[in-house]
Structures are given as C-alpha cells and as structure tokens.
Amino acid sequence: MMENKLIAGLAGVALVLLFNAPQSACANAPTPEQILQRVDANMVFESAISKTSMTITNRRGRTTSIISKSWSKGEKNALVEYLAPARNKGTKMLMLDDELYTYSPAADRIIQISGHLLRQSVSGSDLSYEDMMENDALLEVYDAVLDSEEVWDGRNCFVLALKAKKMEIAYPSRKVWIDSERYLPLKEERYAKSGKLLKKIEIRDLVRTQNRWYPREIFFKDMLSNGQGTIYRIEEIQFGVDIPEHLLTKAALRR
Amino acid sequence: MFKFLVKGLIRDRHRSLLPIIVVALGVLITVYTYTYMKGVFGESLEIAAIFDSGDVKITSRAYYAEKDEAPNDLALENTGDLLGQIRKDFPELAWSERIKFAGLVDAFDSDRVTRAQSGVRGVAIDLLGSDSSDRDRWQLETAVTEGRAPENPREILITQKLAERMKINVGEEVTLITNTINGAMSAVNLTVSGTVYFGVGFMDRDLILADLKDIRWILDMEGWTSELLGFFDLPAYDDEIATALADDFNLKHADSSDDPYGAVMNTMLDDSGMREYFNYAENAGSIVIIIMITAMGVVLWNAGLMSGIRRYGEMGLRLAVGESKGHVYRSLLGESIAVGLVGTFFGTLLGLGLAFYLQEVGIDISGMMGDAEIPFPTILRAKINGMAFVIGVFPGVMSTFFGAALSGLAIYKRNTAALFKELES
Amino acid sequence: MVLLQLALKNIMGAKLRTWLNIFVLAMSFILIVWGKAIVVGMGDQIIDAMKDVELGYGGQLWHPDYDEEDPLTINDAHGSIPDELVPGIEAGQIVPILMATGNIYPEGKVRSVLIRGISPDQQILDLPSSVLKDRKGVDYPALIGKRMARKNNLAVGDMVTVRWRDTNGVFDAREVEIVHIMNTVVYTVDVGQIWFPLETLQKMLVMPNEATIIALGKDTGIAGDLTGWTYKSLDDLLANVLELLRMKNGGGNIMYGIMFSIALLAIFDTQVLSIFRRKKEIGTLMALGLTRNKVIGLFTLEGSLHGALAFILGGILGFPFFRYFAVKGYAMPIEGDEYGFALGNVIYAKYGADLLIGTTLLLMATVVLVSYLPTRRISKMTPTNALRGR
C-alpha cells in the first residue's frame, strides 16, 4: 500500500507536502504504483520541522508574507505556529487526525474549525482549510493510470491520471506530472466531477536536502476565479527530527 | 378701504370669526396632512440613512462597485487626512465612520469550549468616542433592551434575537471569529454589554454592533474606513442639496478618478438604490396632497360661498343706498382675502405647531402596539419643510377668495330689488 | 314621509350649495374607497404574488432541517419525496424544490449562490420554469431573475461557471447556459439564486427523488405533517408579511380619518349656516305646529340626505373610476419590490364588499351625526324669537 498526499499546510502557513508510504522502490518499467512509490521516497518522512512562508497577493495587488514554523509527524498530525506578521504571531493551528483546531492567543481560545468554516480560504490564499485537511492517501482513494509522458518546464514527466475509487472524494479526478528522473511531482491539476479544472498546483523550485529532492516553492491557483494565486515557499526543512509527543496535543496549544 | 373692511369684519363676528375658524381649521388640516405625509414617506428613507447610507456616503470606487459584499479589503486608506479635509470643506455635515463586516460569534462555556456558533453581520460605529452623535443617531438609549451600551473597549451589543437564539447573557464574553482584510483568521473575545432591538426587520436578526476602534484592530484596518457617512442638519433628506454636494466633492477629487481606491461620494438615493422609491414617494405624495388641497379648497370655497349667500340682503341694501355693483363686489372680495389670510395664518401656525411637536417629539404609539421599547417605526413623525409654510395659502386664501367671487357674481346677476328682498325675507 | 319630501325639496332648493356639498362628500367617499381599495389591492397583490410565485396556495412541506434564515443548514436539509405525493407531482399540483448552496463565477469573481431545482412541468408556481424544458443541446439550462442578471452582468445565452458539491461532498463545476431571465416581482426567488430543472439538480447533487421544500397547490388535501416533512400553512409562511402590512395599514387609517374630517367639516359647516340662515323658517315651522324634535328631525334629515345623495353621486361618478383602477390598475413609476415588497409596478384596486359596505355605513353614520349636532340649538329656540330671525 502506498500513500501519496499533497497536504497544504495549516492556516496557509505551513503547507507540507507529505507523501507517506511503505518504502518499496522499483527502478525500472514503472507502473503508476511504482512511480508513486518512488515519489514517496522523496516526499515522505517520519517527522519534519520546517519554516515556511506564504505569499498572498490581495486584490489591491499588494503582497503579504505569512511566516510560520511547523512540526509534522506522520501524515495526519501537525502543529503550525505563526511567526509573522506581528499581529498573527503566536496563533497556532493543530491538525490531529481529521480534526483541525486553531488557537488564538488574543482570545485564549481553542476553536475547532469545522462545518462551513472548513470551506473558507486559508489566510486569503487559494486554498481552503478543507484542501489543507485533505489527507487521505492518494492510492487509497484513487486509481492511478500512466496517461503519457510529457516535457513540462524543461523536465521529462510521467503524467498520471487519478480517478477516485470512492464517492466521497472532493476532487474526483486529478492529473499529476512527475519528474521521471527525480521522482518529484512538478504539477498537479484537480478536477471537478464534470472534468472541469478547479485547482492547479505547480512546483516552481526544488531543493536537494538530506539526500532527497524536495519542493521549495509551490504555486497554488484557484482556476475558476481570476485571483493572483498563492506562492508557498519552504525556507528551511529538517527531516527525521524528534518531535516530542506532547507537542501535538490540544493541551499544548495554549502553552 | 381695506382697513374699513377689516374693522367691519372684526366688529361683525358672524362675518369674521366663523369663516376664520373654518379657514384656519381647513388650513390646519392641510398643513398637518402635508407634513405628516412627508414624515411617513421620509421614514424609510431616514431608516436607510441612519443605518446604512447617510445623506451622502464616501467610499473608495472599488468598494462602491461591490458594496453589497462589504469588501473591506477595498476600503479607503488613511482616512484621517480625508476626514480632516471634508470637515473643513463641508462643515455643515456631521460625519460618521463605519465598517461593515461579517463573521461568526462563538459562545463558549466555562471550559472555554464552543457551546454555540452563529454567523453574524456586524457594523462598527464610534461607540466610545467623546462625540456621541453616532450613539444618538442609532438611538441606543431606547434600542438597548437589556444591559447597557458599550462604555469600554471590547464591548459589543448584539440583537435580542441573537442573544435568545445563542442563549447569550448580558455581560458574557464571546469570541468573534472573522477574517482580517488580508484574509487571516482573527479571533477576539468581546463582552456583550447589552442587547438591542430596533424594530426594523433587517436590523434585528443577526446584527452585532461594535466600536470602530476595536473592529479596525480586529480586521487589521488601522487608519482605514470602509464607509464615511455624511449627515446634513436638515429635517429630511434633500436630494438637490445632497446631489450638489456629491458633485462638488467628486469634482474636488477628480484628480484621483482613475484610482480605483480613490474616494467617491454618492448620495443616499444612489447608494441605497432608493432613488426610484424616492421619486415615487414624491409623486404619490404630490397626488395625495393635490387631492387634499382640492378637497380642502372645495370645503373652504363652499364656506366662502355660504358667507356670501348669507349676505345677499346686505348687498341689496348697499346697492339700494347707491353703492356701485363693482364696489360691493370688490369689498366682498377684499373681505374674503382678509378672512383667508387671517385664517391661513392661524391655521398654518397651529398646523406647524402640531407638526413641529410630531417632528421633534413624535407620538409614541408603541404602547398601542403592545411593545414598549421600539425606537424606530412606531413613532408617528412629521416633517416640516419650506413648502409646509405656504401650502395652506392655496386652500386658505385662494379658495375662500374663489368662493366669495362666485357667490358675489349674484350682485351682477340679480337686480337690486331681488337682493334687497333677501334682507326682508 | 312628508318630512322626507320637505327635506328633499329644501335641499334641492339650495341648488349650488347642496350640490357642492354633495360633490365634496362624494369625492371624499370616492377617495376613501379608492385609497382603501388600493391599499387592500396592494396587500393582496403582495400576498398573491408570493403565493403565486414562491409559496403555492396550499402551504408547503419543509424538510425538518430547513431554516430559511440560515443558509448554512440548507445543504443538510433534503429528503426523499414521499410516494403519496407522486400523483400530485405528475399533475403539476405538488412542486418539490431542491436547494443547495454553491458559487458562481461571473467574470472570474466568486459569488455565493443558492441553487434551486424545480420541475419544468409544475403548474402552481408562476415561475417560467417551462423554459427549462427540453432544451436541445443545453445540458445545464439555468433560469435567473432580472436582479441577479443585472448584478452579475449576465444575459440570455451567456455561459457562466457554477460550482457546487454533491451530497458526498464531491466538487463539481459546469458551464451553465442562462436560457431565460425572468421578470418577477418576488425578489426572494431572484436575488442570489439560480434555477435548474429539478431532475438536473437532483443529478448534479446526487440526490435522486429528493427535495428541500415541497410547495402544494390548492386542493391537495394535505394540511399536516408527513413522515419526514413538516407542514407549513400559508399563514405560517406569510406571518412576517402580514405583520408588516398590518403596520403599514395603521398609517393609512390616519389618512382616511383626515379625509373624512374634511368632508364632515363641509356638512357641519352647511348645517350651521343653514340653521343660522333659516331661523325664520324654523320659527314658521314651529308656529305651524311642528314639534322641536320634528324640526330637528327635518334638519338632520336634510343634512343626512347629503350623505345619501353623495353616496349615489359617488357611485355614479366613482364607478368608472373604480373600475378603471380595478381593471387597468394604478401604474407606479417603479417596481414596488425596490423597497422590499414583492410588488409589481401596477397596483390593482380591490373593492371588497366589506370595504364598500363599511365605508358607506361609516359615511352615513358620521354624516347623520354631524347633521344632527348643529340642530341641537334648535331645541333652545322659541318660535317667537325664531320667527323674528333671532
């Protein structure tokens, strides 16, 4: 079994690409499963601490950068703390399995983000909290087919077409472009049931660290609206760091 | 000769007092009805002005284009300078800064865990400033049904309905969750200092009323204002004045006309989309008033006619002693003008007095409605404008004159003998 | 009888004055009836429009979770249409409506929208739903109102992207074609709404045979809850509007009071003057042996005859006028909905029996009263003084 996921991080601040799966790489004659497994070798980690920035362009054409630090453990647990801008400093987001909490130091409240709040945009970005929370393993919920091979952004890519196996998947189909040499997704398109393109994600910059390729800059765009898109950048990342158990609990949010 | 006629009128109370009372009464009714109608038609405009539009409103162009969505990210920046400028340029107006916003109110229990959540619309006004004009404008004294108006930062008012639905008690702390203009989530605790009921349908559903300073901070809008409402010191909205002002303002700010975030002024009618309603109210009001004046005119004409007929005998006598027909007729007309003027004067005075009372104090009929504290719709109000001072002249003077003129024609038609006989009969 | 003849003769003798009084009274009568009828007509029209377009005449069945004031709950409020309603639905007399929230993207801007599905074959709601029927080559025909069209800059034939989530939360989005822009006075079916054929929307949402509310025609015989559905009578549905109209009506009554007082002032005025002027006649009548009460009766009758004649004149003059406004209506320069009522730009006056009889009785009663009041001074007269005109 393999899991592949593109998790947009919390509150648009930490967005961590997690591809989490048992590591069983197979180098040649790649089937879609094998391709995704190779991807996982790059993307999946036991734990990581990262510092990220998200650049949002508002309607006045002004950009804001939101800087945050994230602690991620496995696929479904992450804590994000805002560092800047000043007014958001200390705000935290906690993803615990399928639940999302936010802690506001100003209100000293832990509030669960649920219901229609989940559909709202994260910090004015092109991502909703729901997009961010969407963390079912790709191969668990999608059937993958190798559609074609294509050159994109100067790199040779496998194009995988993903079709949902289950009814309850927000995006019933996706297309993922995977660098055939580095085994890293470079582009993803998410489609509506009708086949209409809803969201586009592009990896615009890569970094090689701790013996793996990892995205450095990701661009998100809601394709139905005419906004500017959101740029998400991983400034620093460290894999395999020990994260204390108590950090990823609700109780820790207020500390 | 006019003096002589007046003397005669004063001495013969039958010729003066009763007709004057009738004219005054008729004029009173006309004037009162006129101001009342103006008040009734003006009511919905006034509500729109107070709560939403002002008499004029300054926003950014981009904000105005999407004003229904209250797009605070497109609001006016650094309004301090603009405010200083308009206070200097247009000292005759009172200005009120507003921010409208939407969010979630989250009520929590003693463990600080969410117990109820509801979507709300919010309006931020100057609740705490030394200038109390916004508080007065919203009639918070009467509108607060429980608790009190905010006196400290971080205090808000919520509607009675919202308090009931979410079971929020006065004095309780709730969390307002909203987005800053940059899209970041913002959660702040606010204390509910009281509940309000305005008696204006759309205001009483899911509204929270907060202080401008707090909301600026919560929405990350320091120095920004979404809407700058201007209020004339006039009893009723005057479209001509408002339009002229808006044109003047927009001309002064024409250099920024390409800037979507430049300031633009719109009148209440344009902002609220009530121009058509206003025109309709004017038309309908004019129709009713014309009908009223005509009816009143007929009554007074009738009265003038009657007092003329009553005096056929006297005319016969005067003709018999050698007065010319023209002279008798003219004196009759002169008297009618005197009666009309005096009656109109007193009628207008009384009508305006009544209207003034209604305008300034209003008759609170909320007791009759079974609900004691509704500030807005259940107060009968009248509006006095320039027209109210002269409207009584039409039925008061003209109809009386016309009635006398018509009845006096008999002087020419009948012969002296016949008129004289009326005296004897 | 003699008194009646005498009274008639007397008032007819005073030609112009009498006719003027009658005319004024008749005009007031006409104006009051007309004004009331316009207001009644307006109220009825608002209610009728809501019944016609939005509510239906037999009440509605609501899914228990449906709360019209809370758009956040709409997506959870849907249920299977009960089988027993199928014959009514096929006859077009029962109209299930399915609702969901979504977004439209006119010119790339996101706007929230309430998506509604309605059967193109429905017969009870005055919505041009039939335009959604059998559109060749149009998979997603959409109907919107003129306000919605204006606000989002949409025209017939335009394609616009609509995004929604089906019952499983799956995103879907389509280019839909605006096939018709309806001109309705009921803004609650217009602003922020987009209509699709019911079956199309059921497919879009994967909610086969489901609805959010069910509007009922006149004779469906349903007047209570069905399993899984809550019955809302017309009175429940109209409660807010009725309350608003009642308040507006209160203001109107003050106007009628004023109009009446003008007419009555004229009668009172006439009576006072006529008694003053006809003292000698009163004296003569008394001298001839009429009791004071009979004289009072005569004068009261004379005054009251004004009322009766005014009623007749009002009827003659008013009939074509009334008829015109009942048939052609009173064209307002704007649409009434601009200020929050579901009201068209033509108001048709409505003359109910209660209005006509009530106004007539009130008119007659007050005319008799003001005719009588000034005559009381007759009772103080002595025949000798009266004969001499004092």
Question: How are the secondary structure elements laid out?
Answer:
The complex is a heterotrimer of chains A (255), B (425) and C (390).
Chain A (H helix, E strand, L loop, with lengths): L31 H12 L3 E11 L5 E11 L3 E8 L7 E5 L2 E6 L4 E4 L16 H5 L4 H4 E11 L2 E10 L8 E7 L5 E7 L5 E13 L2 E11 L7 E10 L10 H4 L2
Antiparallel strand pairs in A: 1-2, 1-13, 2-3, 3-4, 4-5, 5-6, 7-8, 8-9, 9-10, 10-11, 11-12, 12-13
Chain B lengths: L1 H10 L1 H41 L2 E5 H5 L13 H11 L3 E16 L5 E12 L7 H5 L2 H4 E4 L7 E5 H7 L6 E7 L5 E12 L10 E5 H7 L8 E6 L6 H14 L10 E5 H5 L2 H36 L1 H9 L4 H36 L2 E2 L1 H4 L9 E2 L5 H5 L2 H16 L1 H4 L2 H9 L1
Helix pairs in contact in B: 1-2, 1-13, 2-11, 2-13, 2-16, 11-16, 12-18, 13-16
Chain C lengths: L1 H12 L1 H41 L4 E3 L16 E2 L5 H5 L3 E11 L6 E8 L22 E5 H7 L6 E7 L5 E12 L10 E5 H8 L4 E2 L1 E4 L13 E3 L1 H44 L1 H9 L4 H36 L2 E2 L14 E2 L5 H23 L7 H5 L3
Describe the 3D structure.
The complex is a heterotrimer of chains A (255), B (425) and C (390). Chain A has 255 residues and is mostly beta strands. Chain A has a single domain (10-239), classed as outer membrane lipoprotein receptor (LolB), chain A, CATH 2.50.20. Helix content of chain A is 10%, strand content 45%. Chain A has a 13-stranded antiparallel β-sheet with strand order 6-5-4-3-2-1-13-12-11-10-9-8-7. In chain A, a hairpin with a 3-residue loop joins strand 2 and strand 3. The longest helix of chain A is centred in the N-terminal third of the chain and has 12 residues, at 32-43. The termini of chain A are far apart. Mean pLDDT of chain A is 80; it is low at 1-27. With 425 residues, chain B is an alpha+beta fold. Chain B is 54% helix and 19% strand. Chain B has 18 helices and twelve strands. Chain B has helices spanning 2-11, 13-53, 61-65, 79-89, 133-137, 140-143, 160-166, 212-218, 239-252, 268-272, 275-310, 312-320, 325-360, 366-369, 386-390, 393-408, 410-413, 416-424, and strands at 56-60, 93-108, 114-125, 144-147, 155-159, 173-179, 185-196, 207-211, 227-232, 263-267, 363-364, 379-380. In chain B, the strands form two sheets. In chain B, strands 2-3-8-5-7-6 form a six-stranded mixed beta barrel. In chain B, strand 6 and strand 7 (185-196) form a beta hairpin. Chain C folds into two domains: 2-52 and 239-387, no CATH class; 61-232, no CATH class. Chain C has helices at 2-13, 15-55, 86-90, 146-152, 198-205, 234-277, 279-287, 292-327, 353-375, 383-387, and strands at residues 60-62, 79-80, 94-104, 111-118, 141-145, 159-165, 171-182, 193-197, 210-211, 213-216, 230-232, 330-331, 346-347. In chain C, strands 1, 3, 4, 5, 6, 7, 8, 10 and 11 form a nine-stranded mixed β-sheet that branches. A two-stranded antiparallel sheet of chain C has the order 2-9. A two-stranded antiparallel ribbon of chain C has the order 12-13. Chain C is elongated. Chains in contact: A-B, A-C, B-C.
